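Reposting from the mailing list since nobody answered there.

I have sequence plus structure tokens for a pair of proteins and want to know whether others read the tokens the same way I do. The first protein:
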Amino acid sequence: MFGVTAKQWREANPNLKGNIRDYATINELICLSNMENINAVLINDGIPQGERLVKLNKIAIQQMLILKSDNYRHSLK
């Protein structure tokens, strides 16, 4: 979701405390929470890991596009 692994992030940011989630935007945290819930549903449905990864990646991209869109922000007002 962030484009790097936790290890890669730590190596690239040795002076920052905590982990990548501590520096995520609100949109990234919303999407991450959604992905964790969707993943649990897919696991419960018996979807293999590789297939889940492909589905979750597509959904995450779609959600981030929606969360970043001007139309979405205007609908919250």
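The second protein, same order (residues first, tokens after):
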Amino acid sequence: MKKLLLFALFILASLPVAMAYRQVHFTVSDGTSDAELKERIEYAMSLLLTEVNRAHEAHMSVITVPSFVATAEAQQDIGKLWKNEHFLCDAEQVSERLLTVRDGYQVRGIPLVVTDSTGQNQLGRQEAVVSFDKRGTITSFYYTINPELYSSLYKQWMQEKHHETTDINDRMMVLNYVEHFRTAYNQKDLSFLQQVFSDDALIITGRVIRVRRSDMNPAGVDIKYIRHSKQEYISNLGRVFRANSYVRVKFDDVTIVPHPTLRNIYGVTVHQQWNSSSYSDEGYVFMVWDFRNQDEPQIHVRTWQPEFLDKAQGQRLSRDAVFTLGDFDLQ
């Protein structure tokens, strides 16, 4: 209570004039019988979401999350997102289940309205994942995939009888990192992307080209593939980040497949929607994730293929043509 009072005084002192903003009350609906942990997480989440709303209403360029509820890494996660785009929680009451994960706990599906960095133009809605250590301190904040898709994947894995509990937990861990990876684009976080790609990563991008029509190709379209080194890709991405006031990446239709012979190697296929202030597209991203070091997983392969060969004609890339683990020799 003393900390709550001190933070309330801090907020009041930082406001030159009284401003109206939505205060959010968060409750843990299920997932723990530890009353003290439940109280700490509810307090931290209520404080975080209320502070997000205050910062949005005040058009603040920097968002402040107290260190007694969030680690320095979590504060950096939120700050990087806030620099690229702003967001607010438009619900006064939020209730979510507490999930137990490898390093602590999570709450998922936190509803957010996303705006540009001026706070004036809405960019759509997102759901956030907030992770906690075992004491209930916030350790990370990033965007989740669609909550319905997350639930569908989990139910699918549970129903596949050959999947052991450890395998399901491993897939959940992979999905968490994929979500963090996706958020790094929204954060324009080149340092994280530099870290997560292995030094010899194979990075391939495809673009549609026009070719001579033939009996085998009556539409006269094909995909030209270009191979990039890690440094080429990161350098190009840096130029894209600097040229755009915002970058918004969404992943949906996620498939996670363990390698048949190499343990802790996974193929991940996602449908990606890329939107920025100057460009937008849709396509398929395939990645090979290496979790042999679970504290520092790496991506060895990343490919991108356009969804449409001819959007005006409704001609899509066949799902059979999307890259999979079988297309790469990982030995």
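Reply #1 (J.P.):
I read it the same way you do. Residues 35-57 form the longest helix (23 residues).
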